[in-house]
Amino acid sequence: MESSRSMDLFSSNFNAEKILNDLQVPSTRLNNFESIDEFEQYLWHTNAALVTQLQRLEVQESAEKKPSTGPSRETRLSQMCARRGRNVTEPVKQLNLNKTDQQGPMRRLKECMEQGHTVCISLRGRNSVNSFIQAKIVAFDKHWNLLIRDGDESFKPPVRMKLRATKSMQITRSTENECEDREIKTKTLWRRYLPCSLIRGDNVVLIFVSPRLSFERFLQIMPTNEWFTVI
Fold first, then answer.
1. Count of Cβ atoms closer than 10 Å to residue 206 Cβ
2. Fold of 105-229
3. Structural domain boundaries in the chain
4. What string of DSSP letters covers 7-53?
5. H-helix or E-strand containing 111?
6. Residue 131: which of 120, 145, 141, 143 has the closest Cα?
7. What would be one Gene Ontology cellular-component term for the protein (predicted)?
8. What's the rounded Cα separation, in Å, for the pair 139 and 117?
């Protein structure tokens, strides 16, 4: 009796090792099936009781499975697959339009942009800071790329550039505002007006409130005498 129970597939005392070693398979004609579906159909027609027991066992195993706590299969696949790119006809998603929790230099720069205050921007040259622009900021980003308007630029050219002024920096010797020599003509300062210009953030060294503002407005905008630095 115990031996028969150990060879019963549906018994709790089922012993797979005993079946592999002791079971004698009768030499009968073997059926070849093209697929699992064909084999299931054969079992259903020849041994319906066995099929019913297998179905009950499958339902019992599925009920005992613990619910998955991780993401679903669809969620995992969506994370693995690449997202579809934006079509050229689709509008660009606007970001940070209503963001008001900016802190530090970005917040101060945003206040100057919204209120139309003039700032002074220091730009680096090849070896040193050689350009200063007083202008109003139209737009900026987190990389310190600036779009400015109504800018007055003061530029200290290198020695080799003193005699090679570009068309946008023509020196008018009769006008002191356009060109002025200092310290016995050892330092030359070029000036020009910029209606609109784009400044790369890589060239920005320092941004501070323009000293041309009145003292009252200066204290109102920058009560702690703050300035913005880009390294």
1. 15
2. SH3 type barrels. (2.30.30)
3. 2-61, 105-229
4. T-TTSTT--HHHHHHH------PPP--SSHHHHHHHHHHH-HHHHHH
5. helix 105-115
6. 120
7. U7 snRNP
8. 13
Amino acid symbol at 214: S
Exposure string of 76-99, with b = 16+ CB inside 10 Å and e = fewer, is eeeeeeeeeeeeeeeeeeeeeeee
- Per-residue pLDDT reduced to its tens digit, 117-148: 888 888 888 777 888 899 999 999 888 899 99
Q: At what angle do helices 36-46 and 48-64 cross, to 10 degrees?
A: 120
From the number of C-beta atoms within 10 Å of its C-beta (0-12, 13-18, 19+), residue 146 rates as: buried
pLDDT digits (tens, 9 = 90+) for 82-99: 666 767 777 766 655 555
Distance CA 134, CA 197 (A): 12
Nearest to 197 by CA among 141, 227, 152, 142: 152
